[in-house]
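sorry to bug you again but im stuck and you know this stuff better than me. theres a chain ive been looking at and ive put its sequence and its fold in token form underneath. id like you to explain what the token line says about the fold, in plain words if possible. anything you notice is useful, everything is just below.
___
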Amino acid sequence: MTATELADHVGVCSVVTLWIALVWRAGPALRLPNQRGLWLTVLAATIAITLFQPKVVARFAALGVGAHTVSLTRNLIGVLSAGLVLLFIVDSTRARHQRVTVILGLVTALGSLLALDLLGVTQTAAPASPQGPATASSLYWLILAVSHLAGDAAAVVVCWPYSLRTGDRDLVWSLRMFAMGSVLALVFWFGYLYHLYVPDQDLMPYLSVVISAHGFFRAASLLVPTATALARSMAALRTVWQLWPLWRDLVVAVPQVALAGPQRTRLQAVLRPRSSWALQAHRQIIETYDALLELQQYVRPEAYDTAHRRAGRAGMRGDRLAAAALAGALDEARRAKLSGAAPSAPCPLPGVERGSAATLLAIARMWPSPTDPFATVPGALHSPRP
């Protein structure tokens, strides 16, 4: 694959990723003022990057739109994107005079580019290439480049340091992705200026890859909240899946702790949950702990030590040993409750006083229903469940 072919493939992937991110985040971003500026900034950058792709320019050419017109439009939207970056940064400072200054500078830059082009100052005899400059005018390109360099440099200077001070993890990674994209944009514009004044036919494909990679980081800055929500959902799903056998057995023994009885299978609980995975995981943790507290009335004083010795003889060590001992003692209490044994004074189990989700999950991993927690360990003793 040649450098040009690689640049085309990366460019298409970047554009598709950007548009997907924009559509996906449009609803939440446009409803929230603190996210609206970022979304509009990425939208302008996406349009400019889209118009940078040779295949897109070729489609416009087939419709009778010249490469010069596409390039001019791309440049105007690119300057608008740079101005929106500055506005996005200035909005965080709440400085009204800086906002007015940026708006005036943006209008001046856009007006200057359009005027220079309409006056014919920038026209050249050479045909415009799909990705090359619309013109070779020093003033035109200096205005364009300085606009981009100012916006991207400000983004790097402001976004990265601020990401080190805030405690909001979504904001931290959004700012870092945005800053990293701005670094690539700076590289692109310095390289593009070099390409303009010292033409190098081998440089353009690599610059195309750089600006396309910049697009991936811009998309990532939008998708951070989505990625965080997905990670939380996956963590909740893992909790529901791992805790379900223990939770099911305990709420069957102590049904009064459950808001609703367990579904028939673990797979059904995951694929057809009665609520969101996060709420289901939260509910299972609380109900498992409540059932555990209730079953402490059925724990014999020596049950934990006995289960601990059995687990040790089975070769378990460290945290697995403690979890296996708790699982063994709890299972004995569960069976006693189901067999109709009379409750006695509670015998607290060690390490479960605060109902830690990590502790409950550790017990759940040593709870291979419907057999005893030690049944799968060679040489371990076990007794049948009712």
